[in-house]
Amino acid sequence: MASHPHGGLAAPRRLKRWAIVLPLVLAFATAGGIGVYRYVDNYWLYRGFAPPKDAAWVKQRGRQESISVVSPALGGRAQEVLVYLPPGYDSNPLRRYPVLYLLHGFPGRPLAFLETVRVGVLVDELVGAKRMQPLILVMPFGSTSTFSDKEWANGVLHDQGWETFVAQDVVASIDARYRTIPTAAGRALAGLSEGGYGALNIGLHHPGTFRVLESWSGYMRADAIPAIFGRSRSRLAYNSPSSYLPQAAAALRRSHVYVWFYTGSTDEFRRQNITFAALLRRYAIPHRFFVVPGGHTWVAWRDNAAAALETAAARLAHG
User: Fold this and answer.
1) Mean of the per-residue pLDDT values of the chain
2) What are phi and psi of 71, to 5 degrees?
3) Which of 182, 214, 290, 301 has the fewest CB atoms within 10 Å distance of its CB?
């Protein structure tokens, strides 16, 4: 019987200790969860780099806008598009500007160009240092969610015209809303990884729309994804820049299209890039191709972003 009084006293003491300890455990767990969330969220935005910030000497900055483009090619879907207006846009109401369209990779969203590649900071600094003319950056969202792959292509399913969304719907909306140079001479199309593939694929299909095409670690052969391309070999060939280039070459030359692209020395798509460069030489398409150290990484895209912006700005018409 002696055990009962002992047990009876021990249980309340244990409950009392847990009453004190449990809130502390939950507090630490919650704080830890918030810390983990913030770390993951910060890493997703900046990929381990410092948040973007203009150099102290920059006196005039551009500004970011988020707009919505209703796309007939996507069945009337309203799609997010980020826009970065360069320094001086608001104070020079009579000036028109060339436009650089930027296509994100997969998985991804357009904000990565501003937060990770820091293209807005680069525009501010390069324009401020008079290393390039100001241009408008346009970054459409090319999917229905971050982890849905669309390949920036016109898919076989209904209302999946992602190529047409970029080349027609977004371009028309930007020309109507902003003071652009509304011709091919005033437009460049670029992208990283899958966006690099998309820039080449769309650009080859629309040589009269974009004067400069840039691929940052992109690929040149369409992935055989039945949900996007069906099972048609001809559709895959049409959407593979390395296969379609011979058909597009004459129109590219007539339209004075220039191609600028690079790949990493250990990138899995290195061989595709080298083969594509050889094709451009064979068909006399003006271009520059180079290999950078490393692989398929954000380091490569950040390190070469200034050169990409300067190249586009130098080859587009001036306002």
Assistant:
1) 89
2) -110, 115
3) 290
